[in-house]
Amino acid sequence: MSDDDSGGRENLRMPDDDEVFAEVTNMLGANRVAVRCADGTERTARIPGRMQKRIWIREGDIVLVEPWDWQDEKADVTWRYEKAEADQLREEGHIQ
């Protein structure tokens, strides 16, 4: 067991007022993914250019999305959690 696996709580990025937790359910191509948000809404989320080459997003990943004001079924991905971070969010009851 390495030092960073000692069970200590990491400070995770939490959603801002206009962001919600979501799980990636389907890769749609063209920098878009289908997500199931914590508020129960299925949305099509866009992966912004600053994330496309640096962060790989796969089905089952937990992400933060920012729903569009003018079109509720669409959103932008703002953050992706690592697997260990997603597990910690589940343990703390933030997501199912």
Please characterize this protein's 3D structure.
- With 96 residues, the protein is mainly β.
- It has two helices and five strands; from the N terminus they run βββαββα.
- The chain has one domain (15-91): Beta Barrel (OB fold (Dihydrolipoamide Acetyltransferase, E2P)), CATH 2.40.50.140.
- 14% of the residues lie in helices and 35% in strands.
- The two termini are 27 Å apart.
Main pleated-sheet profile: 5 strands, mixed, barrel
CATH class category label: Mainly Beta
Helix content: 10-25%
Based on the structure given, which CATH architecture is correct? Beta Barrel
- General shape: globular
Please indicate the percent range of residues in DSSP E strands (runs of 2 or more): 35-45%
Average pLDDT across residues? 85
Detail the poorly predicted runs.
1-6
How many separate domains?
A: 1
Output the structural class: mainly beta
CATH topology, which one? Answer: OB fold (Dihydrolipoamide Acetyltransferase, E2P)
How are the strands of the largest sheet arranged? 1-2-3-5-4
Q: Which radius of gyration do the C-alpha atoms yield?
A: 14 Å
Helices, by number, come to 2
Q: Could you give a quick summary of the protein structure above?
A:
By secondary structure, the chain is mainly β. The chain has a single domain, classed as Nucleic acid-binding proteins (OB fold (Dihydrolipoamide Acetyltransferase, E2P)). The longest helix is centred in the last third of the chain and has 9 residues.
